């Protein structure tokens, strides 16, 4: 598995579940996929570029946009 195998939908799911789990989204993605956190972080950057995530100071502490929430609920890319 590589960054291309980590879908925007999976990234959105990680953002949705990370806060409740008390963990950063990239750490959660690493657990789920077995990929290094830097690969997961790059997938998060891609999702942000696609308009799924917004953030203030740090991408890791970002939140889902309406587009990201919709993708997380429907699981489509």
Give a short summary of the structure.
Helix 1 crosses helix 2, helix 1 packs across helix 4 (66-74) and helix 2 crosses helix 3. 58% of the residues lie in helices and 5% in strands.
What does this structure look like?
This protein is mainly alpha-helical and 77 residues long. It has one domain: Orthogonal Bundle (Arc Repressor Mutant, subunit A), CATH 1.10.10. It has helices at 8-21, 25-33, 37-49, 66-74, and strands at 53-54, 63-64. The protein has a two-stranded antiparallel sheet. A hairpin with an 8-residue loop joins strand 1 and strand 2 (63-64). The radius of gyration is 11 Å and the shape is globular. The chain starts with 7 loop residues before the first helix and ends with a helix.
Blueprint (SSEs and pairs):
Blueprint lengths: L7 H14 L3 H9 L3 H13 L3 E2 L8 E2 L1 H9 L3
Helix pairs in contact: 1-2, 1-4, 2-3
What brief labels describe this structure?
77 residues, mainly alpha, Arc Repressor Mutant, subunit A, two-stranded antiparallel ribbon, 4 helices, 58% helix
Side by side, the strands of the main sheet go: 1-2
Strand content: 5-15%
Oligomer: single chain
Share of helix, binned: 55-70%
SSE order, one letter for each helix or strand: HHHEEH
* General form: globular
Kindly provide the name of the CATH class: Mainly Alpha
Structural class: mainly alpha
Uncertain stretches of 5 or more adjacent residues: none
> How many β-strand runs?
2
Main sheet: strands, sense, barrel: 2 strands, antiparallel
Radius of gyration: 11 Å
Number of domains: 1
Q: State the end-to-end CA separation.
A: 17 Å
- In the CATH hierarchy, what is the architecture at level 2? Orthogonal Bundle
CATH fold name, please?
Arc Repressor Mutant, subunit A
SS field, number of helical segments: 4
Average pLDDT taken over every residue: 92
